[in-house]
Amino acid sequence: MKMHRFEEIWLIFGVAVLVISMAITGYQAFAQGMAPPSHKETIDPTQVENTAPFDNPGVYQTGENEYEVVMTLQAFSFEPSEITVPKGAEVTFIMTSKDVIHGVNAPHTNLNTMVVPGQVQRITQTFHDSDEFLLICNEYCGTGHQTMSATITVEE
Ligand code: CUA
């Protein structure tokens, strides 16, 4: 079979890209252990108030400059709604919803996710500079959606 020179080059190029992509993906999956999230935590969405840790929402210090924020989302509020942490704090947000799907987003941070009833969502964010962040719900959740907000104050 006689192939055109350019056809040969493109065929080799195409196969090479495929093989390199598969090698990179294989290396990440098997050598580096990268995989989609696999250990989802669930909760009975009707029993949020009686289920630890969501029976006591709040800000907890868990180590030297490490904090956990146990937070419930409900139409149309965050609890707690005023969070204060020191500068440099590594804060893990542990969140669930009591009713419908809400979202959580603090612009210019890593915090941006859906919070789904029946599931526990965890996100860790380090706050390097003292600042005030507005935390907003970014999933339409009802007539009061636009009023659903909280603040994070990072103190010096
Ligand atoms: Cu909660 Cu929109």
Listing every helix as H and every strand as E from the N terminus to the C terminus, the arrangement reads: HEEEEEEEEEEE
- Apparent shape: elongated
Q: What is the end-to-end distance?
A: 74 Å
CATH architect. name of the largest domain = Sandwich
Q: In terms of per-residue confidence, which ranges show pLDDT below 50 for 5 or more consecutive residues?
A: none
Radius of gyration: 22 Å
How many runs of DSSP E, i.e. beta strands? 11
Helix content: 10-25%
Strand content: 35-45%
The overall number of domains is 2
- CATH C-level name of the largest domain: Mainly Beta
Distinct ligand kinds: dinuclear copper ion
Report mean pLDDT, rounded to a whole number: 93
How many individual helices? Answer: 1
Describe what this molecule looks like in 3D.
- The chain contains 1 helix and 11 strands; from the N terminus they run αβββββββββββ.
- It has one helix spanning 5-31; strands at residues 41-42, 58-63, 66-74, 77-79, 82-86, 90-97, 102-105, 112-115, 119-126, 131-136, 149-155.
- Strands 1, 2, 3, 4, 6 and 9 form a 6-stranded mixed beta sheet that branches. A 3-stranded mixed beta sheet has the order 5-11-10, with no helix packed on it. Strands 7-8 form a two-stranded antiparallel ribbon.
- The model has no long low-confidence stretch (mean pLDDT 93).
- The chain binds dinuclear copper ion (CUA).
- Dinuclear copper ion binds next to loops.
List its traits.
alpha+beta; 17% helix; 1 helix; 156 residues; binds dinuclear copper ion; 11 strands; Ba3_CcO_II_C; Immunoglobulin-like; three-stranded mixed β-sheet
